[in-house]
Amino acid sequence: MIKVRVPATTANMGPGFDVIGMALDLYNTFTFSMDGDNVDRGSMIYEAAKVVFDRAGESMEKFNYSVEADIPIARGLGSSATCIVGGMLGANALLGEPFSKEEILKMASDFEGHPDNIAPALLGGCVISIGTEDEVLYRKMAGSRAISTIAAFPDFDLSTAEARAVLPKALTYPDGVANIGRMAFLVHGLETGDVESIFLGLEDRIHEPYRSELIAGYNTMKTIEEVYPGKMVISGAGPTLLFVTEHGDNLEEIKVAWEKISDPLDATWDIRILHTTDEGAEVMKA
């Protein structure tokens, strides 16, 4: 029996659309075995595991799994990525690990369509990544230890398909140039731990202006920036909002203040402190 624990992830982080992701200390845990066959064969976990079994030329007869899920679904925290990474790592472990972590990264990214959530879920930390035909190119950025995040989960979901449908088909040069500049500040800050550069980099003009219209209460929640140093971004495709601030002793104070800001809104917002984690998916024998 194999257990796989996979962290939540936040992707995009402002201008890093589809290329930057960061692991957070909230987890889904999967248990895998080869002692049953009463599983949902249409699930993402099963389909991800099937990629590994098929690549290895092995049968999935008696493949079985269960899930302990703490990451909310369709909230922009990489729940799908945990299912893909968990399913593939679990299958790989059951088969005696015929595939390397880099091979799993490529298979999982191809399955998902992009590596921005997959890479930090598998590797931990804050990761910049792009997929090529043959591999996933990535670098981990150590400066993310300088920040902490406070996440606000609303009681409504938002599908990735819906969030992508509102994006424009083309970009203007001013918006493209603005994002390139912000991305440069963001990468510098995430690599060096320069918090001011991180804050300067957490501005976007190619997806957040459009997706924010789908998140009721967005403008009200953003007023937290007027009270505390930091920046609010949409986590992944949303609707979770993430306030990125310097790692320090006042996180609980900020959390309480954000809860008060959210109180008059129609939606109920679950607000939690989430720290970045350098630990990616962990495979254990149960």
Write the topology of this structure:
Blueprint: E1 2-12, E2 16-33, H1 44-56, E3 64-69, H2 79-94, H3 101-112, H4 118-123, E4 126-131, E5 136-141, E6 147-154, H5 160-165, H6 173-192, H7 195-201, H8 208-211, H9 218-221, E7 231-234, E8 241-246, H10 251-262, E9 269-275, E10 282-285
Antiparallel strand pairs: 1-2, 1-10, 2-3, 2-4, 4-5, 6-8, 6-9, 7-8
Helix pairs in contact: 1-2, 2-3, 6-7
Domain GHMP kinase N-terminal: 44-125
Catalytic activity: L-homoserine + ATP = O-phospho-L-homoserine + ADP + H(+)
Binding site for ATP: 72-82
Provide an overview of this structure.
With about 290 residues, this protein is α+β, with helices and mostly antiparallel strands. The chain folds into two domains: about 1-140 and about 275-285, Ribosomal Protein S5, domain 2, CATH 3.30.230; about 145-275, Alpha-Beta Plaits. About 35% of the residues lie in helices and about 25% in strands. It contains ten helices and ten strands. It has helices spanning about 45-55, 80-95, 100-110, 120-125, 160-165, 175-190, 195-200, 210, 220, 250-260; strands at about 1-10, 15-35, 65-70, 125-130, 135-140, 145-155, 230-235, 240-245, 270-275, 280-285. Strands 1, 2, 3, 4, 5 and 10 form a six-stranded antiparallel beta sheet that branches. A four-stranded antiparallel beta sheet has the order 7-8-6-9, with helices on one face. Strand 4 (about 125-130) and strand 5 form a beta hairpin. Helix 1 (about 45-55) packs parallel to helix 2. The longest helix has 20 residues, at about 175-190. It is globular and about 55 Å long. The mean pLDDT is about 95.
